[in-house]
């Protein structure tokens, strides 16, 4: 039985793909560098921002990576917040899971500033016992983020499950020797996720609750 549910944020809890893509493309236009196509930006969702920028612009030096980062953050934070909304059933499902006694955590590629902002906007912050961001630790798929969460919660890896929509989430979970759940409605195609042998695939967030409760009963 899992005690701790660790969630990715972008693409798993909130539908922010369009905002991420548009903000990265706007940053490139500001700096008059080649604008990445939608698919390229979708591919890096889930990574820490410096790692994502370096993957998108492999020839960029440190100064350019920093400049892209600053312009991306500017556009993302100034974007219309209504463009990013919780996926259907997220709020109600998280609340019920908490009421059922599951411990909840977040492991995200977002910065601490960005996560705190969206936790306040969605009023979900009180549901999560622990949150870890990429600018506080190693970026996904390094397992350090999950290992730190386990240390804080005083749990073994087999008592937790990582739930995410990108292969970086699932690789991170596998490297931490933790079960994973693949979310099919996010940034990466399901075929990319199944290579990491998730114990479950979900196609809507609410499916998580019935599976977890049946898993607990079993």
TrEMBL record:
Gene3D superfamilies on file: HAD superfamily/HAD-like, Putative phosphatase, domain 2
GO function terms (MF aspect): phosphoglycolate phosphatase activity
N-terminal signal peptide: none
GO cellular component labels: cytosol
InterPro entries: HAD-like_hydrolase_sf, HAD-like_sf, HAD-SF_hydro_IA, HAD_2, HAD_sf, PGP-like_dom2
Origin superkingdom: Bacteria
Any one of the GO BP annotations: DNA repair
Pfam families assigned: HAD_2
NCBIfam families, alphabetized: HAD-SF-IA-v1
PANTHER family: HYDROLASE-RELATED (PTHR43434:SF24), PHOSPHOGLYCOLATE PHOSPHATASE (PTHR43434)
Protein name: Phosphoglycolate phosphatase, clustered with ribosomal large subunit pseudouridine synthase C
